[in-house]
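re: that chain from earlier
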Amino acid sequence: MNILLVVPDFPFARKSKNHHEFIPIGLLKLASYYRSEVSGIDQIKLVRGEVNNIDFTPDLILVTSLFTYWSEYVAKSTHYYRGVFPNSEIIVGGIYASLMPDHCKQNTNCDEVFTGLHPEAEKFPPEYDLMFEENDPPMQIIHASRGCFRRCAFCGTWKIEKKPSDKKSILSEIRSNKLIFYDNNFLQNSNIESILDELKEATWKNRKITCESQSGFDGRLITTHLARSLKEARFINPRIAWDGEYSEHKDIENQIRILTEAGYKNEDIYVFMIYNWSQTFTDTEKKRQKCWELKVQIADCRYRPLNQTFDYYNAKLKQTNDDYYIHPNWTDGEIKQFRKNVRRQNICVRHGFSYYSRDLEHKLINNHIKQLTEDAWYPDEVTSLIDIR
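^ sequence. v structure.
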């Protein structure tokens, strides 16, 4: 039996630190499952996009999917391989497939749509040798838990990972000095303290590991003890979420205080902030200004509905709902202005600048000349939409 694993050519941002080498963890676990549990496996190959030099005829083609608004890339890959291998069985799984199975089936013309997690494949380690020489990944995606007990309206995690589960240990799974936890609520794990204790001493090839939580930490669960343990376990770039109203700023300030007292620098802390959402531009700008006051960075998250099947957002163009989703409380101009404000503010926070200047962003000049810069933008001000350019 020959199996082809397909990652569509998703348009990841070039500057994305953890996505520049996207690791399709689900497909790699499926590869491990088939190699271990299914007899008669001859070849398993992983490809990205539409490849024309496959040197075998696959009996089974497994295609992964990500966000619903990238559905066209899944359809493109599926239709391509259907044309090349008309007799192969094609199964599509992943986020888009799980959230919109009927649309996925019609859009891709696959033989089967697999929804949710594969219960058997979840028990197996990823087959990193399909991507990296000597089975040695430069970074490792790992889960210490699945699911989330929160029911946020903008999130699909609880719809896909319906049965929360916690691991007691992840030591035996470590294959890299850089661990990226993809848990959707890392701190909810009932074994979180023992997990952090083992990470404090964990090594790979005689070197200490570093950790990062891609989805951040549920700030409502952070305690002084847990914050210190996260620091001792070498978690970097801690992220918390501010999804609610500006009136919650005291809670956010307290979460940041706990993290800084544990040893994290303000400028290394990120606050997830959803925009193009129910809160207006003006209210979201107040939250941005509070983050400036606290000197922490913002990880901005533009909202798209869970059933949005396209996204042609372009920061340089004037656009409408025909191009991408614009919430009724927002405008195209406000969305792009907020994103611009966040980018400029983060630069100021990282470098300790009191203001941002496009002309000076990549130049080293003395402070006297900086004071005379005409295009200076100050993060503590709400920016007029006229500033978009």
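The longest strand covers residues 2-7.
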